[in-house]
Amino acid sequence: MSRSSSLPFAWSAVRSAAALPPFEAGWVWLVGAGPGDPGLLTLHALNALQQADIIVYDALVDEAILKLARPGAKIEYAGKRGGKASPKQRDISLRLIELAWRGKRVLRLKGGDPFLFGRGGEEALALVAAEIPFRIVPGVTSGIGGLAYAGIPATHRDVNHAVTFVTGHMAGGDVPDTINWRALGEGSPVIVIYMGLKHLPRISAELIAAGRSGDEPVAIISQATTDRQQVLETTLARAPSDARTSAIPAPALIVVGEAVRMRAGLDWLSAALVGRKLDPDPLGKKVAPPARAQRVGS
Q1: Which domains does the chain possess?
Q2: Catalytic site residues?
């Protein structure tokens, strides 16, 4: 299918001012589209959308982002979703090679970041083997952007100085058998799990067996940064049953750790949309707030 778009500003002037590169024929750009909100696209990503001849996109790329493609660009779906019929990774890579050999400017558009659980490395190596030039355009990963939109900092000096990103399933759909859950549970104060909703019962059990408290805060962030975003706050022990009862949909991130408690003070989106009152002391440290600054003109 093809789509048309018109940007609400002089994109050519922006591209020139930012010295953004031309998209050459026969090249493949592996581009991160971010977690969903089009405003989180990088200028390089938008530049690619405005020049590509064909866009081969993933299941997690939001429809609003595809509407930014240049008029006449061909849009081709190559998404992979667990439990649904999906193209094989080898076939996707071969398709990119075929299109590049035909002299097309090929944009491989991937949700989040191409190199973080995005199989961008596999596709890039296939291009290397076929001697096809390519560019990597990083994107905002949902483990950073999605948490921020839920009001949860990936790191906070009063909570954690380390964070671990984990995938919740392998290519075949099972929980990765290479994860050392005990080491993960003991060593990482905050754990962000991608694509783990289906296997939440096992993940919860593994972390509790590794020594994590069943009362530890957990947040499940569904469809992060989109207008369909939902956030479920629960605990590690209750997370499987609460997720099932609430029927919170995938794709979802699972965040384990005390950083989830910061949401009471940092849930800026709910404060803006529904007037949630934020707590300046979400950790209950009873720290005196800074002295009130005098307003200018008062």
Answers
A1: 15-140 (3.40.1010.10), 143-274 (3.30.950.10)
A2: 58, 80, 195
